[in-house]
Amino acid sequence: MKPRALLTIGSTLALACLPLFAQAQATVAQVFNGEMLGTNLKYFESVAGIARTSFGDKHTYKVQGCVITADAAGGSINDLRLQLSPTCKADLSSFIGSFAPAANQPLTIAALHESTGGPLEFYADCLEMCGNAADPSVYALWEGPHAVGFTQVLAEVMLTDDAAIAASSKWADEMKKHKGEDFVMDNQYNCERSFDPAALQSFKPVAITAVTIGTQLSKPGC
To answer: Which UniProt keywords apply (predicted)?
Structure first.
């Protein structure tokens, strides 16, 4: 085979392998990064690698053992979600600058509130009689000022461990005391902000299990 043909084949194979090579080399800091918001999906995958799973516009990647999900509606990265664990910590500084909690530290609701200055809006999939279809979560939403492009941070607390469940019960009890049981059962707390302070007090020490960053983030409705 001629050298030119060999060179062409070699170049084609190298280009085909780029996403896989990127996936092996990428770091969480490179992929879960504010610079990625608004980029083309193809560019994002040149760094993150090929998605492991895709469901509609949601694409999930595994980077350094951490699960990162990108929403790419319209072909561009609209938001990024990082599933947290003791080995998967979120550095939010590339997204929200000085409003970010200290990097490489456990991310709690208290830490997010302290660094951003609030306010945090609280929402939940369900607090009582949730069934067994999926583990419900409570969410704390913060929207940054113009200085950070009104970037939103949606902190998720999955109600699976004792601390999270106890916090959700405390929040629910406070609302039932003032609004009655139907208010909680019908998820009416998602429609008003009067019980956000009670939620903050209940969830302050609780660890965040996932964080999503972008703009116009979706959250549970009424």
So the answer is: Signal
Q: Name the residue with tokens 């999939």.
A: 125
Q: Quick one: DSSP state of residue 170? A: H
Residue 119: asked if its preceding bond is cis (omega within 30°), the reply is yes
Which tens digit of pLDDT belongs to each residue from 125-142?
999 988 877 899 999 999
**pLDDT grade for 14, boundaries at 50, 70 and 90:** very low
The reported pTM is 0.88
**Beta carbons of 86 and 74 less than 8 angstroms apart:** no
DSSP code string of 18-53: HHHHHHHH--HHHHSSGGGTT-BHHHHHHHH-S-SE
Give me the residue spans of the domains in the chain.
1-83, 84-216
- Once rounded to an integer, what is the mean pLDDT over residues 64-80? 97
Cα separation of 32 and 29, whole Å? Answer: 5
User: Quick one: 211 exposed, middle or buried, by C-beta within 10 A (0-12, 13-18, 19+)?
Assistant: buried
Question: Class for domain 1-83, per CATH?
Answer: alpha beta
Q: What is the DSSP code string of 69-100? A: EEE-GGGB--EEEEE-BTTB----HHHHGGGS
